Amino acid sequence: MKRVAVLSVHTSPLEQPGTGDAGGMNVYIVQTAVRMARRGVEVEIFTRATSSDLPPVAELAPGVTVRHVVAGPFEGLGKEELPGQLCAFTAGVLRAEARQDPGHYDVVHSHYWLSGQVGWLARERWGVPLVHTAHTLAKVKNANLASHDTPEPRMRVIGEEQVVAEADLLVANTDVEAGELIKLYDADSAKVAVVPPGVDLDRFTPGDREAARAALGLRPDAVVLAFVGRIQPLKAPDVLLKAAADLLARAPGVRDRLVVLVVGGPSGSGMKTPEDLKLLAGELGISDVVRFLPPQGGAALARVYRAADVVAVPSHNESFGLVALEAQACGTPVVAAAVGGLPVAVRDGVSGLLVAGHEPAAWGRALAQVVLHPAFREELASNAVGHARRFSWDRTTDSLLAGYAQARDVFREEVFA
Ligand code: UDP
């Protein structure tokens, strides 16, 4: 395996995750690409150019390049408008390959269905296997919609079904996602591989909680509940706010110490901005305890996790939930919704708690169980680190490379049969 073409049409690996369309998928692509390059496999990531200032080719890390493909206007194009630009994007990808020696790429790995559509054609033209990671599935999302969210269109469902039928290997985060691909999308089970994602164990380490709190201007004895992620209905930051109000009704004594940290930027439709959440906090009478921070990168994000007593992941659906692993790697227990991949990311009663449904009372109770019982919290916190260490991007990368090799062998057998 010499070189992989990675397709990331709708979001660039160079973007700061935590706002807009940039999230776990960006982190996944960067972390695995860097590690593939370290193993001697070059990675070229194709993404749509969103500014005229971007160079056609940029180096992300040694052995990892980002190719900016011009497809439609640079700015102001929403994700829902991208299906109309897939032809232009595909043309750009095929042109870039045509300028290389024959056999430049050994495999094409597409992320999200929009990229899958491009990969489908690249596979045909280049004679290489298509490996696809869905990241989220429209049928699953539509079955778990928040009340104020917009359903995914039929066009996406059809597009996903096509990619599932055409891909040589489908990479799923968990057994649950593999089952969804097989049951809901009629995927061939022989073509589905479960590859758990990882966590950056150098960046997300346990650290000094008081120092982290001081850096954020929080008092040492604060009771800190944190939400980290894109502010969108699917992620349900509103559930955390309602749960915080419930917690205060249960334990009014913590009012002067309670802080709800909401970290991330606007994304998608519905209750999507800090403004919407500020209004909600006002309605709930907790404006004084809620603090908003823009998306955090580098060491600042690890500080947020360390400062928190608990990180809440109340999502309506989550194919995995990297935030849950990162928080645990920093020694912070997680209270998560029992949906999608979160029951794998969090060990219920061991490294955190899983909550069925999104009723504020159930969430308030679970949060109270952790933050009002220091011995229980400490037990969860120490288990959380060990649990997170079971996941690593190195392992993810090795499994992906093994998957690529397997897909190539099967592809060759099929082509030369
Ligand atoms: N993230 C970040 N800064 C922020 C908020 C989030 O870098 O302020 C990152 C976070 O570290 C995680 C990713 O965004 O790696 C979110 O991934 P997750 O799987 O939790 O959710 P997704 O965005 O894929 O839905």
TrEMBL record:
Q: Report whether Metal-binding shows up as a keyword of the record.
A: yes
Kindly give the InterPro entries that the UniProt entry links to this protein.
Glyco_trans_1, Glyco_trans_4-like_N, Mycothiol_biosynthesis_MshA
Supply the EC number(s): 2.4.1.250
Annotated binding of 1D-myo-inositol 3-phosphate, by residue: 10, 21-26, 79, 112, 136, 156
In this chain, Mg(2+) is annotated as bound at 305-306, 308, 332
Q: What class of enzyme is it?
A: transferase
Which Pfam families does this one have? Answer: Glyco_trans_4_4, Glycos_transf_1
Gene3D superfamilies from the UniProt entry: Glycogen Phosphorylase B
Question: What's its catalytic activity?
Answer: 1D-myo-inositol 3-phosphate + UDP-N-acetyl-alpha-D-glucosamine = 1D-myo-inositol 2-acetamido-2-deoxy-alpha-D-glucopyranoside 3-phosphate + UDP + H(+)
**Domain of life of the organism encoding this protein:** Bacteria
Q: What does this protein do?
A: Catalyzes the transfer of a N-acetyl-glucosamine moiety to 1D-myo-inositol 3-phosphate to produce 1D-myo-inositol 2-acetamido-2-deoxy-glucopyranoside 3-phosphate in the mycothiol biosynthesis pathway.
Q: Per the similarity annotation, which family is this?
A: Belongs to the glycosyltransferase group 1 family. MshA subfamily.
Q: What is this protein called?
A: D-inositol-3-phosphate glycosyltransferase
Q: Which organism is it from?
A: Saccharothrix mutabilis subsp. mutabilis
Its organism's taxonomic lineage begins at: Bacteria, Bacillati, Actinomycetota, Actinomycetes, Pseudonocardiales
